Amino acid sequence: MLKGDKVGLRARYDDDIPVLRTELYDDVVNGSRAEGRPWRPITPGSKDSRLVVDDKVEEVVPFSVVELESGTLVGTATLWGIDNHHRNAHIGLGLLPSARGKGYGTDVVAVLCHYGFVVRGLQRLQIETLADNAAMLRSAERNGFVREGVLRSSAWVLGEFLDEVLLGLLAEDWKPGTEG
Asked: What pTM did the predictor assign?
């Protein structure tokens, strides 16, 4: 398990799947804002890639996020779009509604940076998020990510186009904390 100050990133367990499906992916608004594709329900028992991990897929590393103190599942974290030639990847995360507003997002981003830069030896990490996602923007910027641009009206979300913010962090600009 990779550990931060408040959370740990570990492998996805079978017991995590029903909780994540119910609390994250069955929520139409949250799912529509989090995905780059239209929301659709996930059938219980399906092998949907958002929930079930396929260890043969090298470009995506999904984690379950747990609170360190209690071991309680609080969300998901993913390093995705991993390009080993250019040594870059994207960061994504989703916190259960009960886990939001507690600083876990900032800690998850820190641990994913450690994983990307130290464990994987990547050069660049990138985040794309909706421009109105203040929590994700704060979490990214607290970890040293720099706003590199705005993709105007690039995301179709629940009947309207929204702007996305592109943030990047280079290995040499990263200031590691205690995660690891």
From this structure: 0.92
